[in-house]
Amino acid sequence: MAQQEQKDKDHQMGLCLLCGLPAAGKTTVAQALSRSLRKCKGWQCVLLSYDDLIPVEAFSQTEDTLEPEAQQPLISRWRLHRHELLLYLEHFLQALIAGCHYYSPLPSRTETTWKSFVCSLKEQGLISTGKEDSASCQYLIDSPSLTPIYFILDDNFYYRSMRYEVYQLARRYTLGFCQLFLDCQVEVCMQRNSQRKCPLPEETICAMVQKMECPNPEKYAWERNSLILKSAEYSLADNFQVLDLLSTALEHPVKPLEENMEAKEMDRAICAASVLHQADQGIRRIVSQIMQNAKDYNLSPHEMKSFATELNKLKAAFLEDLRHKSNEKNQSCVQNNIFNVNVALLFSQQADVVVKKYLNKQ
């Protein structure tokens, strides 16, 4: 029994999310945290920065700059990369837990993201190239996994549902789970962003401010291991707090069969988000059809662009209002499905005002 307990202790693993606005200082904190864990705890630390792992073309355009019919493929591509990163991480965790010596590629993968992920593991000394030929490649797992390992995921994670996906991964494999949220002033983020080699558009950061869902341990028990750092600077005081948080999460990993009302509430919230996503798709089709019909009215390129801009703004405002109303009513999935029956009609009525503005004068 004592031998088994030691084995379980030797193979402790945890997932730590670093979330916050762009340029809030997440990467700086991640690097400092990695050094602290190695020096103070003797733990292994693996940094996974989404900005480095997801190919730049996934972020090259935003929803507002696209024609309606071109929006969905790009958005799906971005979500696909995020989803695949978690699959690659889970695949690697499975190999570590099983004590495998080799790490093989997943049959279904996006090559750019897969190569970035593998390169990151190689640079951090976890794997090296083993057997390789034109058909496949197996990577040798160099880490014996005899000491605790923390995987630090560095991303914005502005929606709670994004973070909950990682929590579910921790729950499947009895891993430690915790969150570090960097609460940095928007003005500071804007200033730092402007000094970057490839700065994000300011409107992107402003939009993220509106969407950001901070950890709420009082409402969601699965977020209990969370810490909000009021400063983007990694101070000595923060160091002690963070190390204590990570130690606590590692000593009390998430149980696979753990169920609580908060987790069920989160499941319902994700279900509601899925229903809202369906409403989003229906509205996109309406906008696309309206723009297609507008081509018969011989509008000038300037008028077409202005027409599309107004429709997209209306769509964004309509969906945001729909999301708030859904949250306020706290409806179940069935109720939301019933509620969405009238969404297309409601949006079409509002869109008619814009349509008449541009098409009735023809």
From TrEMBL:
One of its GO terms (molecular function) is ATP binding. It comes from the Eukaryota. Pfam families: KTI12 (PF08433). The keyword ATP-binding applies. Keywords: ATP-binding, Kinase, Nucleotide-binding, Transferase. InterPro entries: KTI12/PSTK, L-seryl-tRNA_Sec_kinase_euk, P-loop_NTPase, Ser-tRNA(Sec)_kinase. SUPFAM superfamilies: P-loop containing nucleoside triphosphate hydrolases. NCBIfam families: selen_PSTK_euk. This is L-seryl-tRNA(Sec) kinase. It comes from Pogona vitticeps. The gene is PSTK.
